[in-house]
Amino acid sequence: MIIAAVDAFPLAMPTIAEVSDGTQDTLVVRVRTDEGVEGWGECDASPLVSLAVYCCPMSHSNIISIRDTLVGERLDSPDDIRRLHRKARRQGLDIEQIDHAYSGADIALWDALGKRLGLPVWRLLGDEAAYPKLPYASVLFGDTPDETRRVAARLRNAGFRAAKFGWGPMGRYGEGFDRDLVAAARAGMGDENEIMIDAGVVWGADDETAYHRACLFAPYRPTWLEEPLSPDAIDEYGRLTARRPPVPIAAGEGSNRVRAAADLIQNGGVSFVQIDVGRIGGITAAREVVALAKRRGATYVNHTFKSHLSIAASLHVFAGVAEFRYLEYPAAASDLARRLVKNPLAVGSDGLVRLHDAPGLGVEVDPGVVRAYLQPTRIEMGGKVLADVSAFA
Amino acid sequence: MIIAAVDAFPLAMPTIAEVSDGTQDTLVVRVRTDEGVEGWGECDASPLVSLAVYCCPMSHSNIISIRDTLVGERLDSPDDIRRLHRKARRQGLDIEQIDHAYSGADIALWDALGKRLGLPVWRLLGDEAAYPKLPYASVLFGDTPDETRRVAARLRNAGFRAAKFGWGPMGRYGEGFDRDLVAAARAGMGDENEIMIDAGVVWGADDETAYHRACLFAPYRPTWLEEPLSPDAIDEYGRLTARRPPVPIAAGEGSNRVRAAADLIQNGGVSFVQIDVGRIGGITAAREVVALAKRRGATYVNHTFKSHLSIAASLHVFAGVAEFRYLEYPAAASDLARRLVKNPLAVGSDGLVRLHDAPGLGVEVDPGVVRAYLQPTRIEMGGKVLADVSAFA
Q1: Residue A52 Cα, gap to closest chain B Cα (Å)
Q2: Could you name the CATH architecture of A3-120+366-389?
């Protein structure tokens, strides 16, 4: 079939707070083909900046928009999707945002192709089974240890066997407070469950402090300590992991390119590499990191803080790899993120999450929710209307 | 003083061709302070995508626009500029385009501060002298060897002692044609001058072909072979340089972050690292690579394919380091790029380029040229006008 249209829709909650909650807005991408097949994807990125990559005027042969790259192209096989991924990165060589923006299109292409062929995406990727995953509820720390313990207890009561606590006050009020936050997470979740700690890049390039925090947190047995350092502090990650801290180190959500993930695994020495399918360039790019992680003995984990459209896309990438067993699962999300698809991936009675047995991504975008949260957007440049998202139809 | 306004102006030639000429459009950034001081910078990036980073709505605490980051901030010292660089990257942590977009603002801040303090930027950076540099005329290959020889002869007659030929047909018609292109560049420039070859990422991840081309080109004594591989093909660069090809390898224009440049130097093993001050995050970020290159024994070179505003900004970064002696100097540029500043950095009678002895960057933007090439741009989102560049005043 032929790609007939590529449309990006910015969605947002009515008010946006300056907190680290990535579900307050989003950019969803719809691909339509000449056969009437429709695929959907989602970017974890600034909606306006990424929308601009879909419609920007050509600057020269290395700055060509995603729309111009895709419309009119053939879409018949996984190889077409991989070819278009290369084409988009080549024509967008000098657009730094290309990976963030193209992620939504790539996911939508896999969804559309799966629907056309009647196969789930994990099968298109060549996997033979889709394994259930252990979801860890991903939430922000409470403002205090007490509030954190209450959040943890609520998650445990909701049936979560693992939960990750991140950002918020961590790293901001000294090591005693940090330890109390971790202790509260452990107390609330109980000894039998898993906790993960996400430091939210708070120690920047200070691997010494990161090491000592790992030691301080070790008695509470977190599964990992995530992003103690800035995404670009690779040499510092390397020093930190070379000391073999008593809590394994996780990072990777800042990987905007496959090379950045490779750099983090090979030179940063992380144990868990956390890839956001909505940032790194979609399923095609994330899948490359799965292969790399397998080769290097690291554990691949999704990073997801968007809707169930993104959770499904994330899960297809590594559903077929039994040993990669954790699934990040946003447990405190905006109405927009919770309702974007009609059939979210619920946590089963065994505490695990499975993909729906359906073609493509297996989730269905709710047009009413797109309509309700649509941010009307209009971009004019040099006398031309480049984008005019005024209604969803 | 206080930053009062940050404005970005997209400029473009009336028609844009699908060729690798980066001077067909641009985004210039103006910073104004409460004391009436004005600084200018330029981004080498998609103007629309980067403009969006200046005005995008907040998505959460890691996606905050450059305008919101800068307006109202103090600007009294180089440390303020470094602090604001960190702030912009922190508040733009999840905006992939942040480095490309912020480059223009960072350059404008250095320019403004220099003007305020009556000092050239290289002095603000702590250097004790500004050394003249050997400009290499940077041009595209002709479509044929004959045309390439004519281009080279013209540059030699214009007084250039070095010239770099790139992109175009290189790598597209087999090794015989590639060799003839290089031979023609050498013949046109004469034996006494320097030539550089820019392969324009044409061999992707194929380091074997890159190695053999380096051997094939060696008899024509190019100073370097540039970007034989994709910016992300670091392992392949590492394999290529480990074989010690007879022509030194150069790369780096694709470094959107300091870490990418570090990765290329440390793991890719390149001899020349070519940094675009309009992509990597401005003077502040490029300066970090100068220090890194010194430590690792690599040679820092600017990558510049924009106006003399960018040439000046590029040159301030490493003017103080005598041993980094090459200056990329676009010799075939659009009317827009050639005329953007009133006082371009001309090649002296000794064939070298020097900075003007003046505060800030030392070049003066021509308001008439900004006006003539301004691309009226209007961005509305969620009922708000985020950008309205309709006239230049």
Answers
A1: 5
A2: 2-Layer Sandwich (3.30)
